[in-house]
Design brief:
Helix content is 40%, strand content 28%. The chain is α+β, with helices and mostly antiparallel strands and 184 residues long. The chain has 2 domains: 39 residues; 91 residues, Sandwich (Jelly Rolls). Strand 5 and strand 6 form a beta hairpin. Keywords: Signal.
Length: 184
């Protein structure tokens, strides 16, 4: 007797359809956040441009910092060279300006001349006031004046209140100076 094979064929067809549907669902989920598959289009369209943009930003930032640092060093070097050139052009005078106290060393016979408001404090050695008229320097420590040729007292603070007032080293000296000055 012949059996009917159609229920068996129907069951096989249902199984094939179910298997294909399962593969379709799996294929639809590939490349999503849950499936870490990276496609070539993602690499070329999204990932690579993002990395290049971050790299360009970092390079630009570093170039700005390096340019700024180099400019500061060039300006400092230029200022040093301008000071040295000015000293040569003025016959050995060394101009200086300090908004804070700077230590200046003078050899015997050298003269430090300040502009109005320059402060001078003798720390080591001996020096005398240099002025073309009275008063020479103001002794801010005791409130007196120092005339031309008078000796400075160590650790007293002196101020030039008239242009071209200063000190002449009678021995090797070290002074603290704040303000604009020249050494000759």
């Amino acid at each position: 007797m012949k059996r009917k094979k159609w229920p068996l064929k129907a069951a096989a067809a249902v199984l094939v359809v179910a298997t294909l549907a399962g593969f379709g669902v799996l294929a639809a989920e590939s490349g999503s956040q849950t499936d870490p598959l990276i496609t070539l289009s993602y690499l070329t369209d999204t990932l690579t441009p993002g990395i290049l943009q971050q790299t360009d930003a970092k390079i630009t930032s570093n170039n700005t910092l390096l340019t700024s640092a180099l400019t500061e060093q060039i300006n400092a070097f230029t200022q040093q060279m301008d000071t040295k050139i000015a000293a040569v052009q003025t016959g050995g005078q060394t101009p200086g300006t300090s908004s804070t106290y700077a230590v200046v060393s003078l050899n015997s016979g050298q003269t430090l001349t300040g502009t109005i408001g320059t402060e001078i404090m003798l720390r080591v050695g001996t020096a005398a006031c240099v002025a073309s008229s009275s008063p020479g320097l103001i002794d801010m420590t005791d409130g007196s004046t120092l005339n031309n040729g008078a000796s400075l007292v160590k650790n007293h603070l002196y101020m030039a209140t008239i242009e071209n007032r200063g000190i002449k080293a009678t021995a090797a000296v070290k002074v603290l100076v704040r303000g604009t000055y020249t050494v000759k």
